[in-house]
Each structure stands twice: as structure tokens, then as C-alpha cells.
Amino acid sequence: MNSPVIGITCSWEIDRAAYLSPRDYTDAVRAAGGRPVLLPHTTLESGEAESVLSRIDGLLLSGGTDLDPATFGEEPRFPLKAIDPVRDGFELALSRTALTTGLPVFGICRGIQVLNLAAGGTVYQDLSGQVPGALRHEQDAPRWHPTHTVSIEKGTKLHAILEEALCRVNSFHHQAVRDAAPGFAVSATASDGVVEAIEATDAPFVLGVQWHPENTYRTLASSRRLFAAFVTAARAGSR
Ligand code: MN
């Protein structure tokens, strides 16, 4: 069986001027039968997004720092962490191009927000400032420990993948999807109503989750099922 090539976007460590990729992403992809390659973000010339995507079978948008509110047409009005304009531009360009080709895309944490923005949706800058009664979505518990529950919408691809209506997830975000993009369905929500997963309704696997399944794939079957579904979709479309 061939190993589909999964491109994983990176973070940027300012102090060392170094790209950073938490190993759990590559390990989770590898455990699911994928061949991980890292995609360091740079500026993109015309045609380069297509060129990168033509060499991979699936795009994994990894977690990381905040999106610049300017990417969704807002002024910074709430607490904001470091932003990375080059990463924003790189990931949004890759995502927009992937959406036109049907390439499998798996967005994780920041990645669900990038995916939603690329497809024309909106994002909350800061849950505690904008969603009254929001749960604590920034846990201090270990990364492998799930701290809140999400309800999975019946009839969605996510429900078919997870085979359960309730799922325990970890949570390391203060931004989140606000309005899902046209052509996308909300497939999971937290008990405070915050969107925790979205999926394109007309693509085999274009899906984002607000949690970090790569940190729990060793212990939670639900996380392994997500990576398995992503890698299977990438294999089905691989050249
Ligand atoms: Mn959460």
C-alpha cells in the first residue's frame, strides 16, 4: 500500500529564527500510514501554491499562533498573541488553492480557522471577550488530557468517522470559528455553542477540528480515527 505524502505546515520560533514542527503531527500521520513532509512558510510567487500542492496528497494545517484580525477585515480589538503575517499568507494561499482542487485538507486548531477563512467564513478574535459564558478553552492540563466535551452533529462526515455523538477533547485556543464558510457544515460544537469542527459538504475530506488530536492519538481512538480518515482520503486521491 502506498504512503500518501502529507504536507504539514510549521510554526515560527521568533527567538531562534527557526521553523518549528511539534513531533506529534508527524508521528500521528506516520502511525496512520502517511509520509509526512514539512512545509516551511515563505512568501509565494504566482503559481507556487499550485506547485507545492501538486507534490502532496494531503494538506495538514497545523496549530499555532493567532491569526492577524486583518486577514478577516477587523481591527485588533481583543487580547492578541504573536502574529505571523508570512504564515497567514502562505497557509491561506495554499488552502484557497486546495479548496479549488478538492485536495484533502485537515485543519487542526489554528488550521480550522485558516481553512474557514480561506473558504469565506469568519473567526472570533477572542472567545472570552466575544462569547459570554464561554467555557475555559485554554487548558493548563497536559496536552494529552481532554478537558471538555464536544457534541458531534449526526449525519456529518465527522460523525461517520468518529462513530460517536459525544467526544472528549483537549483545548488550547482563544480564537475560534464564528460563522462557518459557505459550503461548510458545523460538525461539532462545545456546550457553550463554540464551533469545534467544520467540514466541506462536497469534498471527500476537507475538515477542521478546533482540538489537537495529534496530542491524543496514542490514547484516544477518536483521534486515531481522524488521522486514519485523512490519510485514507489522501491515498484515494494520490497520484
Ligand atoms: Mn475548545
Share of β-strand residues: 15-25%
Number of strands: 13
**What class would the helix/strand composition place it in?**
alpha/beta
User: What is the makeup of the main sheet?
Assistant: 9 strands, mixed
Distance between the termini: 13 Å
Fraction in helix: 25-40%
Order of strands side by side in the largest beta sheet?
A: 4-1-5-6-13-12-11-8-9
Bound molecules: manganese (II) ion
The helix count comes to 7
Our Rg estimate from Cα atoms comes to 16 Å
Oligomer: single chain
Shape: globular
Task: Give the rounded overall mean pLDDT.
Answer: 97
List the keywords.
239 residues; alpha/beta; 9-stranded mixed sheet; 13 strands; binds manganese (II) ion
Any overview of this molecule?
The chain is α/β, with parallel strands linked by helices and 239 residues long. Helix content is 28%, strand content 23%. The strands form 3 sheets. The chain has a 9-stranded mixed β-sheet with strand order 4-1-5-6-13-12-11-8-9, sandwiched between helices. It has a two-stranded antiparallel sheet with strand order 2-3. The protein has a two-stranded antiparallel ribbon with strand order 7-10. The longest helix is centred in the middle third of the chain and has 17 residues, at 85-101. It is globular. The mean pLDDT is 97. The structure holds manganese (II) ion. The site of manganese (II) ion (MN) has 7 residues, from loops.
